[in-house]
Amino acid sequence: MSREEIASRLEGLRRRIAAAAERADRRPQEVTLVGVAKRQPASAVCAAVAAGLTHVGESYVQEDLAKRPEVERALREAGVSPPRWHFIGRLQRNKARHVAARFDVVETLDREALGEELDRRAGAAGRRLDVLLQVDVADEPQKGGAPPQALPALLDRSRRWSALRVAGLMAIPPATDHPERSRPAFARLRELRDALREAPGGDTLHALSMGMSADFEVAIEEGATIVRVGTALFGARDAAGGDA
C-alpha cells in the first residue's frame, strides 16, 4: 500500500472516530487511535506515523525486535517524532524484560506474577510504564485476560508496583459478524471500570481499550478511550495474524 493511501485511510479513520464520538456526546480528542502494526512492514508503519499516527501497537516481541530499529531509523532520518509504543499481545513472563525496556504502554497485564515481573524489569531499566488490566469479558481464556471477579484483588496488589501505573482496562470481545453484537461486552467493560474506581487502587482507572477495525465505532459509543485498528488502516495482513 502506498504512503498516500495509508495517509488517506488515517484521515478517514479520524473522521469516523469523530462521528462516533459526537453520536455519544463525547469529544473526539478523548479517543486515542492505536495503529496495530502486527505483520505489517516497517515502511507502512513509517508512512502512518509520518501522516500523524502517534500510537503504534505491536503483538509479538520478536517481530518488534526485528522491525522497530528500521522504523526508528527511517523516522529519525525524516525528522519525524517517534510514536508511543503499545504492547497488545499475550505476554509471557520470559518476555517481560524486552517489553519493559521497549514499550510505553502494556495493554495485556492479566495476572499478579506478570505484574510483579514487569514492575521489577521496568524499575531496573529506570522506566515507568502505563499498564492496562486485560479482562476476559466472555469466558474465552485462550485470548488471555483476568476474569472480572479477580480484578479487585489484582488491582489491590498493583498498589505495590512502583514502576507501573494501572491506567485502565482492556478487552477483546468474541469475534462476530456484526459490530452491534460487541456492544454488550463493551458496555460491561465500561461498567467494570466505573465500579472499580471505588476499589483500593482504582483511582487511576480511566482508560478503556476496546474496539478494533470491525467494531471500533460501537466501542467509542460505549466509552472507549483507546481503539486498536490494524486492517482498516494498513490493509490486509498475513491471515495467521488475525484481524484488528
Q: In a few lines, what is going on in this structure?
A:
Helices cover 41% and strands 16% of the residues.
| Distance linking N and C termini | 17 Å
DSSP summary: helix tally: 9
CATH architectural arrangement: Alpha-Beta Barrel
Major sheet size, sense and barrel closure: 8 strands, parallel
What ranges have pLDDT less than 50 throughout 5 or more consecutive residues?
A: none
The rough form would be described as: globular
Helix content: 40-55%
Task: Provide the number of structural domains.
Answer: 1
User: What's the order of the H and E elements?
Assistant: HEHEHEHEHEHEHEHEH
Q: Output the CATH class name.
A: Alpha Beta
Q: List the strand order in the largest sheet.
A: 7-6-5-4-3-2-1-8
Secondary-structure-based class equals alpha/beta
Portion of residues in beta strands equals: 15-25%
Q: Provide the residue-averaged pLDDT.
A: 94
CATH topology: TIM Barrel
**How many E strands?**
8
Radius of gyration: 17 Å
